[in-house]
Amino acid sequence: MLNKAMILAAEEPSPVLPHVGEMILGLVAFLILVWVLWKYAVPRFEKLYEERAAKIEGGIEKAEKAQAEAEQALEQYKAQLAEARSEAAKIRDDARLEAETIKAELRTEAEQEASRIVAQGEAQLQQQRAQLVAELRADLGRNSVALASRIVGESLEDEARRRGTVDRFLAELDAGADGAGARN
Questions:
Q1: 183, pLDDT greater than 70
Q2: Distances from the Cα of 128 to the Cα of 7, 8, 69, 121, 138, angstroms
Q3: pLDDT tens-digit profile of 157-166?
Q4: Integer CA distances (angstroms), 71 to 35, 58, 80, 174, in order
């Protein structure tokens, strides 16, 4: 029985090895599949690959072009910035010069105004001094006439005589004051 079982087992197909017909059918199906892929799928993959490569190369070119434009824009920006800085420096210098000019003009105007005020004050002082001297002369004349009237004992009321006496007295005083001033 054992022998019979071995013979039966030898006639049954092996579970590990496929049948020869299945192997031939599988090989033919595989070759047809390879031919279909080679005929239709591979050209499409190649075309997609080429398009993708072209897009990537175009993207790289665009990126390089954009980078070149960015560098050019940066250079222009730097040039404009340098120009703006130099213009700002020029404006500052012009403003300083204008401020100095205005300052000098204001100083000159202030000095002229101060000189005018001082001159006006001196003129007022001279005028007041002259007025005070005239008033003092008149008072001194009246007091001199009154004193001389008391000393002399007669009335010096005659206006012309009195003025002549007062004027002579004041002239003598001025002459004495001028001589004393010239000696000092």
A1: no
A2: 165, 163, 86, 10, 15
A3: 565 566 677 7
A4: 53, 20, 14, 96
CA distances from 85 to 74, 91, 147, 148, 174 (A): 16, 10, 89, 91, 75
Give the chain as a 3 state SS string: CHHHHHHHHHHCCCCCCCCHHHHHHHHHHHHHHHHHHHHHHHHHHHHHHHHHHHHHHHHHHHHHHHHHHHHHHHHHHHHHHHHHHHHHHHHHHHHHHHHHHHHHHHHHHHHHHHHHHHHHHHHHHHHHHHHHHHHHHHHHHHHHHHHHHHHHCCCCCCHHHHHHHHHHHHHHHHHHHHHHHHHC
Q: Which of 1-5, 38-42, 109-113, 138-142 has the lowest average pLDDT?
A: 1-5
d(CA 148, CA 23): 174
At position 83, the amino acid (one-letter code) is E
Name the token pair of 23.
Answer: 């192997």
> Distance between terminal CA atoms of the chain?
177
**Residue pointed to by tokens 């009321």:** 157
Q: Two tokens at 3?
A: 């022998």
